[in-house]
Protein: Benzoyl-CoA reductase/2-hydroxyglutaryl-CoA dehydratase subunit BcrC/BadD/HgdB
Amino acid sequence: MKKVGLTTTVPVEVLYAAGVTPVDLNNIFVTSGKSMEYIEYSETEGFPRNLCAWIKGLYAIALLEDIDLVIGVTEGDCSNTKALIEVWQSKGKEVIPFGFPQNKRYETMVEEVDHLMKCFGVTLQEVEAVKEKLFPLRQRVKYLDELTWRANQATGFENHLWQVSCSDFNSDPEKFHQDLEAVIKEIEARPAFPSNEIRLGYMGVPPIIEDIYTLVENNGGRIVFNEVQRAFTMAKEPMETDIYQMYLNFTYPYDLERRLKEIKQAIKERKLDGIIHYTQSFCYRGIEDILVKQQLGVPVLTIEGDLPGKADARTKLRLESFMDMLMDLKE
Structure:
């Protein structure tokens, strides 16, 4: 079965309707155990050192692993993707571009999704049928989210992992569903976390720092809201929302204003004591930190990640100090 690499979340329903296997290249990058090897390969190919590690990882994975073609998101994600696509194509890799319309017009989204359906030879009816099949999975991930912030039984990392996996449903929706149900059953049997813990929200792209959730919990807190990961689930959409509107409502690819609105709602609903704003080194999204700190109304710790791996000593110290400050404020 043909494997289609994704540079970020796209209408995955189109791919499953076409009988191909979607593979989120980002998830391979952080779980492969070979992240630095991918980066080193890309740098030997000429990619500069002071370039986002994610881009170098995606480039290498698409060429070195069993990926037949790639869908590259040219609007609404990384600003480097357009150049990345050109380099892939120069190496003979087939790439299909897809853009989230920055004008946020329904008609433009129809054009983008229809183009994707045409590339894979599927109809709207087939795609909508897959959307209906995936709907219960999205709702179960939403339930796991509630086990995180409402029942206080799931960890921040579990919340992150299952939400971010909705980009491709781990390339196998049936197995994804089975594994998810086993995890939910185990979580439901746990006692709740202490009620006096520090409750944090996480905003920004999923972290390249692998132990950030553990560090928060080791310092008396828990991340009970993962902003971008939650957006990946599309779980807030009712069944009747069509495929075009669903991806038009997807907040990640669009302006910061819509994202901040949802984060403010989460701060109130989930009783968040503070926010961790993660930014990736050399990424334009770091500029958004100015507005984040101006508008959210709660303490914000900005953490910048560069290479994959555990947090460095400076990041650990800053996180510990932030948690101490929040504990003092809470008391």
User: Anything to note?
Assistant: The beta strands are 3-6, 21-24, 69-75, 94-99, 198-203, 221-226, 274-280, 300-305. Residues 3-120 form a domain with the Rossmann fold fold (CATH 3.40.50.11890). The chain has 15 helices and eight strands.
